[in-house]
C-alpha cells in the first residue's frame, strides 16, 4: 500500500522536531556531561587508570639539558678584566620520576614524596661527560663573599686553608664530576670538623644532592570534594609556608606541585606552583593559544615581573636583598652562599648584567620558559622550564685567591627541564579527554542541523503535494465543462440542421 506524500511529510516533521529537540537538550546537557567526565578523570583517584598513572609515575619522556658557561680567560678575570664565556652543551640526562609513600587522608588530600634519577643520554648530547670545562670554584669564591664581613684574621685563616688544600678560584674538571661530585680534601675536612656546613656529606657537585633524591613531602588536594582545588598544595614537609623570605606573601606556599593544574582554565587563569629547588612559589601567565600534537593548548609563560627586584615590582621586595632586576637571591635557602637564579643568558633581566660578561645572547625561543597546557583538563602537553645558576664573585681583602676580581654576577650553568606527552599515553589522552568530548559537542549541532533539514524537507514535500493535487482538480473541472458544452450547445445545432433538411425535403415532395 503506497504511503501518501502528506503522510511522509508529517513523519519527517515529527522526526525533525525530535532531532532538533534532542540537539537543543544536548546544548544544555552536553557540557554538563562532558565536564562531569573530565572531573571524574582528572581527580586524584586510584580508580582513574589514565590520570592516576600519569600523576603517579609520569610515563612520558622527561629530560634535563645542562649548558655550562666555560670561562676562557680565568687569569684575566683575576686581574680585574671582564669575564668571557663560551656556552658548552647541551649535556642531556633522561629523568625518571615517580611518587612513593602515597597516603590518602580523610580530608581529601594525599601525601607523597617524588623521587628522581638521572641517566646520561650521549646520543642527545653534544659531547661526553668527560668533556672538560672551567667554571668558578664555589668553595673558594662563594665562601670568600660569605666571609667578606668577618674579622681580617678569619679571612686570612680562610685563605691559608684554601692554600693548604690546593683549592684554586676556578675549577677545570670533567662535566660528570662538576655535575655529580668530585673528591675534595677540603670538603672532607669540613664535613669532619664542621658537619652540616655544606649541603652534601660526600662529594661536592652542582647536582650531587639531586640524583636519587626526593623533593620533600608534598600534601595536595585530590579534588574529590572540590575539583577546583585538585593538585593544589596543602603543605610541603608539613609546612603551610616557608621562612626563607622577608614577607608573609613571599613565604606562602601557593599553587600546585608543578605537574598538573585544576581543569577548566581560561585565558584569565594563572598557573601558580611551588618549587622546592627555587625555594618559593612562582606563577605563570597566559600568552597565546596553540596546538600540541593535535591537542588544543594554552601557552603560559613567566611574566617579566617574576624575577624583578623590589624597586621595579614592589611585591617582590620580600625576596630582597636584591640586585638588578632579573636575579632571584636564593642565598637564604642555599646555606647563605651568594647564589642567584635567573633566566638563561639573563633573558628579560636588567641590560647592565649583560654588560658585565662577554658571550651572552638572550632570546625568547631558546631561553624563555613555558608550559603548553590543555585548558579543559589542566594537563601539561609540553613543558620547558629553563633556569640559570649564577654566583656572585668579587675581590675580598685578605683572601688572596680572589685577586682583583671585579664584582660580577657570574653565570655558571643553565638547565632546561623538558617533557611532553607522546605515544600510547598521548593517544589514550586525546581519545578519552579530547576527541570524545569534541564529538559530543559537535553532535548537538549535527542533530539540530539534521532536524531542521528534515523539517524543511517535509514542508517542501507538503507544498509540492498540494500543488500537484490542485493541478489534478483543475484538469478534472475542465473536462466536465467541455462535456457540458458539447451536450448543451453542439446538440441543438445538429437538431436544427436536421430539421432544416427535413423542411427542404418536404417542400420538394409537395412539388
UniProtKB/TrEMBL annotation:
Cellular component GO terms, alphabetical: caveola; cytoplasm
Membrane spanning stretches: 12-34, 442-463
Membrane topology reported for the UniProt record: Multi-pass membrane protein
Keywords from the UniProt entry: Cell membrane, Disulfide bond, Glycoprotein, Membrane, Receptor, Transmembrane, Transmembrane helix
Cross-referenced InterPro entries: CD36/SCARB1/SNMP1, CD36_fam
Localisation: Cell membrane; Membrane, Caveola
Listed GO biological process terms: cholesterol efflux; cholesterol import; plasma lipoprotein particle clearance; recognition of apoptotic cell
GO MF assignments: lipid binding; low-density lipoprotein particle binding; scavenger receptor activity
Pfam families on file: CD36
Entry's family note: Belongs to the CD36 family.
Record-given protein name: Scavenger receptor class B member 1
